[in-house]
Design a protein that fits this description.
mainly alpha, Growth Hormone, Chain: A, disordered N terminus, 15 helices, 432 residues
């Protein structure tokens, strides 16, 4: 701390670090590309097939490879230079964008081609996400890490808000071709910015890759009831209540709008989440955090139900924004509990477990919504899923008293239950 005070007593900006600035630009380009591409894929697949189940398969085709390789990706991030991992993965994502562009140019109507590209994309993301998460401590001094993480979150939210809107405008202006040209260009810029980083992380862990090290995070989460409850509550709530996959159907057939309307629908949850993130950064959550998490998930389910029955675009946007805001409360509680209740030597592997559950709730939730909408219709699929979320809240509030009784997040601590697989030590990571 003294070093920071001597250098700049007035809390200097983390943006004075060259590599951190370049990394934020790279993150912004990468997330924008992903959001633009997601809007274009959803609208194009539904336009070609007219099938809700086809939209569900777009989520499933990303989730299966992500689930298969996520734990391995966490291990790889500790054993190789993370900058190189990010550059390689982003180059693969660039090739995916170019493949989708060829799909649009060639007027190919077999969506199995899109699913194949998304399988490759999901695989790359399984390695990209752990490496990106672990790179930030190498870009700023240790005493500035908290502010760096906050900037990371802000960059993500800004891109998540802007990306769908830009994607909708590009699709409405130049069709799928224009959207994919935009996403491919941003992917290429991301590769350039990542390769411009001077940081070299090297090998953080010398442990051999083994089944025991892969599953240690799963064992830890299973034993920590408070952490298990928070992760699985979010998993099943979003798995049942998520409606993102069906937004193209709502935009075209329910709300009778175009790609621009789809872009607004896609960015509304992120707008609500960003507002709450800023509020929580200014005013900490305080006590009764466990009950606040349950209340937030219940609001998420109720807001999703309102969206499901809405026939008004403004009301739908408000409902999605409220759902995103409530989900952000759950995210903050869950992520803080993960950091506070997990020993440092287990955070990477526990984080990989959390990422797997996030992937399951999002991509597998998209498949659930698409499959159900194919059989009962989009509106019943969303409404029944939202009611299922409310049921999950009631069951988890009864079944996880450890989570319900959490007061202040700062006091969360792990239950002391030693496990041989979780006591492995790794070399201390240098912070550059």
């Amino acid at each position: 701390m003294g070093q920071t005070a001597d250098a700049a007593p007035a809390s200097p900006s983390v943006f004075r670090h060259r590599d951190f600035r370049l990394y934020q630009i790279a993150r912004l380009c990468a997330v924008l590309a992903m959001q633009i591409e997601s809007v274009a894929i959803g609208w194009q697949v539904y336009e070609v097939t007219g099938s809700a189940l086809a939209l569900g398969y777009t989520g499933l085709s990303q989730f299966v490879p992500f689930l298969a390789f996520c734990l391995v990706g966490g291990q790889v991030a500790d054993r190789f230079d993370r900058r190189k991992i990010l550059a390689i993965c982003q180059a693969v994502m660039l090739l995916c964008s170019l493949a989708l562009l060829a799909f649009a140019w060639g007027h190919v109507r077999d969506v199995r081609f899109v699913y194949g590209v998304l399988v490759v994309f999901g695989t790359a993301r399984a390695f990209y996400a752990p490496a990106g998460s672990a790179l930030t401590p190498h870009l700023v001094p240790k005493d500035e890490l908290t502010r760096a993480v906050a900037v990371n979150s802000t960059t993500w939210q800004v891109a998540t808000i802007a990306g769908p809107a830009v994607g909708g405008v590009l699709y409405g202006w130049a069709g799928a071709t224009g959207a994919y040209v935009g996403s491919a260009s941003l992917c290429a810029l991301t590769v350039v910015w990542i390769l411009s980083l001077k940081v070299r992380t090297g090998r953080a862990s010398s442990q051999p890759l083994s089944f025991s090290t892969l599953v240690a995070g799963l064992r830890f989460v299973r034993r920590q009831r408070m952490l298990l409850g928070s992760i699985t509550l979010d998993l099943f709530a979003v798995l049942l209540g998520g409606a993102v996959a069906l937004l193209p159907i709502y935009a075209r057939d329910v709300l009778h709008t175009g790609p621009w309307g789809l872009g607004l629908l896609r960015c509304a949850p992120a707008a609500g989440a960003a507002a709450v993130a800023v509020l929580l950064a200014m005013r900490p959550m305080g006590g009764r955090a466990g009950w606040k998490m349950f209340a937030a998930v219940a609001v998420f389910g109720a807001a999703t139900c309102v969206f499901g029955v809405s026939r008004s675009l403004p009301l739908s946007l408000v409902a999605l924004a409220v759902a995103g805001a409530a989900d952000m409360v759950s995210v903050v509680v869950r992520h803080t509990l993960e950091l506070m209740s997990t020993p440092d030597e287990m955070r990477g592997r526990v984080g990989a477990v959390n990422m797997m559950c996030i992937g399951a709730s999002n991509e597998l939730g998209e498949f659930r919504a698409g499959w159900l909408a194919e059989h009962v219709g989009a509106v019943p699929a969303v409404v029944t899923g939202a009611l299922g979320t409310l049921l999950v809240v009631a069951i988890w509030a009864w079944g996880f008293p450890e989570l319900r009784d959490v007061d202040r997040l700062e006091t969360a601590a792990p239950t002391p239950q030693p496990d041989p697989a979780s006591t492995e030590t790794t070399p201390t990571q240098a912070v550059g």
